[in-house]
Structures are given as structure tokens and as C-alpha cells.
């Protein structure tokens, strides 16, 4: 490689340094709040601009992509700026000044072509989640041929209770000689119960599925945490807000975030319940002819008793 | 001699008729449509029915046994719902047992008051059963009067 002339190298170095500093300042990098783990660094369109009194950083919106860790966000920002600087002066000058409402955010999370991808971004689950226990929802449905449907349903229901589970639903048709029972059992006992069903009769159909929701749960938790922090920050801003317009805007945003947080909490609860308790639907059927109902009345051993009663009075009076 | 015999026979018949007539006096709205030495049938204009019958009990089961046997049959075999039970007494103070029952006949709720008395005899006991059967709505209108007539029952 041919050596670069010294003055040119010095000039290029100074330009790069200058661009880097400009990019940092315009992005409000030094004032970035702790929670700004959102890729793109800009404010969401229209929403946060009204209450953003900081230097350009703003409350995040769900539309933004999520980086996995806070440090990753910072790292990503540094790479961005270096990348911008290397790309040329036009691109480096594009970030808006910190004052005034932020411009509409560009499509977030899409990595720029040729830009170095930070190691912690992407679809890989975060380190914490992958190290922790996987969150898996198990579901199963089985069809079992048994000699007596009612007895099998009773036995299985009792077994579910033994395993600290419960019967969620039960339906049956004695004339068709079949019955379905839907159980919720602790996840760790799911496969044991599925295997046990072979002892009830002949398993003619078996579908078992496992759905890994680790990432979904982690994402929701992260989104919820971020939303909670944003809400707290808004509440802090609300304390110092003086203009009615600002107050209303902040309150609206707080309301929106609260609804969002509650919805996420509900979703989390549902997912965690599904993870903790597996769902098993078992249909029992029998090839035996359906039992024919016997006469509802049998005669008493005592003849005079057979002669009294409502029907006797109505029909033999 | 023949005259004396026929007089005695007449007396016996009269006593028999008199005793039949006094087993039970049905309440006012009931019309007695049939009666004999061991039964009375009476009916209201709405065709609520009152039926008294005597059954011989050679085994002498006693009130407690027959009460339980009857209850088991009505509940378990017939599927009646027992609305209430009570101890009752006839005119002579003989203890008895009363059930109020409900069942569905042809899709309509029907109630029955069934009273049971046991009378001791020389060779066998007598089980006396008084039944008042009416549709649920009509039942309430006469049940009080029927209960009152039970207290006037004569052995």
C-alpha cells in the first residue's frame, strides 16, 4: 500500500473527528436518557415532540425496534456515527438540531446497508433469556378408544386432580358413546399424563405441540418496562408543566401508555398461565353400543306401596 | 226368631254403613264419588283427587318401617321430590306421617299430600293411606282443608 501524503492524512483525520463530534452533538448523545434503548435514536413521529424538552431524545413508541440491552444501544449509536462519518459529509450533517420538535422518525430498526451490525442485535434472544429456563406452551389432543367412556372420563378427571390440575371443560354424548374432557395440568406433568393415556385404552390419534414463547414473553416484559419508564418520565414532566396544552398532551400520553401497559400485563399473565399449565384435550369413545336406559321405576317388594303415588291416583282413581 | 235375626242383620248393616261414612269427612269442596268400608274417593270441580284406602299388613311392619319403605320407593324408584314431611295425628291421636311430594306428569308439575297411619288389628295391622293429588297451582288451595280433615280421621 502506498503511503498517504502526511498533510492529507492530517486533514482527513481532522474532518473525521469534526464530523464525529457534530454527529454526537446533533443527536443529543450526551443527554440520552438511560432508557433510550431504541434503535434509530429519533423521536417517534409527532407523538413525543410536544413534551420533549431534552435535547432531541424522546419517549419511545412501540413501533420502534428494540435493542436487547442498554449498552448495545449505545454501542449501536457509536457505530452509527462512525458509519455516518465514513459515508460522507452530507449524511453526517443530516441529523436535526436538538431544539424544536424532532422530525418524523425514519423507519426504525432496519440496519443500514453496509453498516456494521452490533453483535447484540438481531433475532437472537437476549443473553438473559437464553440462559434462563425456556418458556414453552404445551398442548395436546388425543383420541382414545376405551371400553366405557364415562369410567374413563371419571378416572382421567381424578388423575388430573391428583396431579394438581383441573378439568377445564367436559362434554359428552351418551347416545353417541363418546365424551371429551379438557384438562389443565402443570407443564412438568404434561408428558407423563399423555403417556399414561395409553393405559386407558387404544390411543387412535395423538397430537402434541410445544410452542416456545420465551422471546415473546421477554419482548413483552421489555416493552412493558420501557413503557413504564416512559410513563414515569411523563409524570415527572407533568409536575413541571405549566401550559394547559402541554398538560393535556402529557395526560393523554400517560393514559395511552397506561392502557398499553395494562394490556401487556394481561398478555403476560395469559402467556405465563399457558406456560405453567398445559392444555390436554382427550376424547374418549367406545365401540360398545350405547347403554339403553332401563325403566326408571322398579316395583316395590310391598304391593300396597306399588298401588299408591301420584300416577296411581291420577290414572286409577 | 227370624225377626230377631233380621233385626240383628239390619243393625249390623247399619253399623257398617255408619262406620263407612265416618272414616273420613272430605273437605267442603270435595264431592264423594265412591266409598266403601275401607276406601273413600272424593273429587273437586277442578278434579283434584282425594283417595283414602286401607291395606292389610300381615307382617305388622309398624309406622316407622312403612314410612321409610314408602319414602325410599317414592324417592328412589319414582323420582318424586319430597317437598316436606311432618308427623300427624288422627282424631283418636293415632300417630301418622305426612309427605308432600312433587313430580311431573305430562310436562305439568303435580303435587301430592300422602298421609300414612297404621292401625293395629287382631290378626293383621291396617295401613291407611290418604292421598290428595292436584296440579301444583290448585294443590295449595285445598291442602289446608285436607290436613284439617286428616285430624278428624277415625280408626
3D architecture notes:
- The complex is a heterodimer of chains A (317) and B (155).
- Chain A has 317 residues and is of the alpha+beta class.
- Chain A contains ten helices and five strands.
- Chain A has helices spanning 6-26, 70-87, 89-92, 127-131, 149-162, 190-196, 214-240, 244-276, 303-306, 310-316; strands at 136-145, 166-173, 178-186, 202-212, 277-285.
- In chain A, a hairpin with a 4-residue loop joins strand 2 (166-173) and strand 3.
- Chain A is elongated.
- The termini of chain A are far apart.
- The model of chain A is unreliable at 15-131 (pLDDT under 50).
- Chain B has 155 residues and is α+β, with helices and mostly antiparallel strands.
- Chain B has helices at residues 2-21, 62-77, 136-150, and strands spanning 31-36, 39-43, 49-57, 81-89, 95-105, 108-119, 125-135.
- Chain B has a seven-stranded antiparallel β-sheet with strand order 1-2-3-7-6-5-4, with helices on both faces.
- In chain B, a hairpin with a 2-residue loop joins strand 1 and strand 2 (39-43).
- The model of chain B is unreliable at 14-20 (pLDDT under 50).
- Classes of the chains: A alpha+beta (317), B alpha+beta (155).
- The A-B interface holds A 296-300, 302, 304-305, 307-311, 313-314, 317 and B 41, 43, 49, 51, 53, 55, 57, 69-70, 73-74, 77-80, 101, 103, 105, 110, 112, 114, 127, 129, 131, 133.
Could you write a compact summary of the structure shown?
Chain A has helices spanning 6-26, 70-87, 89-92, 127-131, 149-162, 190-196, 214-240, 244-276, 303-306, 310-316; strands at residues 136-145, 166-173, 178-186, 202-212, 277-285.
Amino acid at each position: 500500500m502506498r503511503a498517504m501524503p502526511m498533510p492529507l492524512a492530517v486533514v482527513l483525520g481532522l474532518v473525521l473527528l469534526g464530523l464525529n463530534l457534530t454527529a454526537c452533538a446533533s443527536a443529543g448523545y450526551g443527554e440520552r436518557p438511560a432508557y433510550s434503548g431504541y434503535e434509530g435514536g429519533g423521536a417517534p413521529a409527532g407523538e413525543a415532540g410536544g413534551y420533549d424538552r431534552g435535547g432531541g431524545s424522546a419517549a419511545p413508541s412501540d413501533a420502534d425496534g428494540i435493542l436487547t440491552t442498554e449498552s448495545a444501544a449505545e454501542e449501536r449509536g457509536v457505530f452509527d456515527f462512525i458509519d455516518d462519518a465514513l459515508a460522507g459529509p452530507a449524511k453526517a450533517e443530516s441529523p436535526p438540531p436538538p431544539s424544536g420538535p424532532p422530525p418524523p422518525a425514519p423507519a426504525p430498526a432496519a440496519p443500514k446497508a453496509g453498516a456494521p451490525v452490533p453483535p447484540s442485535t438481531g433475532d437472537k434472544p437476549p443473553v438473559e433469556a437464553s440462559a434462563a429456563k425456556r418458556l414453552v406452551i404445551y398442548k395436546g389432543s388425543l383420541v382414545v378408544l376405551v371400553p366405557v367412556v364415562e369410567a374413563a372420563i371419571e378416572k382421567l378427571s381424578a388423575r388430573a386432580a391428583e396431579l394438581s390440575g383441573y378439568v377445564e371443560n367436559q362434554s359428552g354424548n351418551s347416545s353417541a358413546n363418546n365424551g371429551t374432557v379438557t384438562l389443565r395440568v402443570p407443564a412438568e406433568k404434561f408428558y407423563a399424563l399423555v403417556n399414561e393415556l395409553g393405559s386407558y385404552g387404544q390411543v387412535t390419534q395423538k397430537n402434541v405441540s410445544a410452542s416456545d414463547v420465551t422471546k415473546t414473553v421477554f419482548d413483552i416484559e421489555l416493552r412493558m418496562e420501557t413503557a413504564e419508564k416512559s410513563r414515569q418520565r411523563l409524570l415527572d414532566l407533568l409536575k413541571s408543566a405549566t401550559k394547559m396544552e402541554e398538560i393535556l398532551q402529557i395526560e393523554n400520553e400517560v393514559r395511552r401508555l397506561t392502557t398499553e401497559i395494562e394490556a401487556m400485563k394481561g398478555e403476560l399473565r395469559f402467556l405465563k398461565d399457558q406456560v405453567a399449565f398445559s392444555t390436554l384435550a382427550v376424547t374418549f369413545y367406545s365401540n360398545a353400543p350405547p347403554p339403553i336406559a332401563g325403566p326408571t321405576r322398579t316395583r316395590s317388594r310391598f304391593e300396597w306401596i306399588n298401588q299408591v303415588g301420584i300416577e296411581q291416583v291420577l290414572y286409577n282413581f | 226368631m227370624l225377626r230377631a235375626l233380621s233385626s240383628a242383620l239390619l243393625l249390623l248393616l247399619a253399623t257398617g254403613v255408619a262406620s263407612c261414612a265416618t272414616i273420613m269427612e272430605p273437605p267442603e269442596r270435595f264431592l264423594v264419588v265412591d266409598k266403601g268400608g275401607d276406601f273413600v274417593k272424593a273429587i273437586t270441580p277442578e278434579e283434584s283427587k282425594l283417595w283414602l284406602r286401607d291395606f292389610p299388613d300381615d307382617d305388622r311392619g309398624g309406622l316407622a318401617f312403612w314410612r321409610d319403605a314408602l319414602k325410599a320407593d317414592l324417592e328412589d324408584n319414582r323420582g318424586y321430590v319430597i317437598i316436606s314431611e311432618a308427623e300427624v295425628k288422627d282424631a283418636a291421636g293415632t300417630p301418622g306421617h305426612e309427605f308432600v311430594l312433587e313430580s311431573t306428569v305430562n310436562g305439568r308439575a303435580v303435587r301430592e299430600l300422602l298421609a300414612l297411619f297404621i292401625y293395629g288389628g287382631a290378626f293383621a295391622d291396617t295401613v291407611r293411606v290418604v292421598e290428595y293429588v292436584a296440579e301444583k297451582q290448585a294443590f295449595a288451595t285445598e291442602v289446608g282443608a285436607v290436613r284439617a280433615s286428616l285430624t278428624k280421621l277415625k280408626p
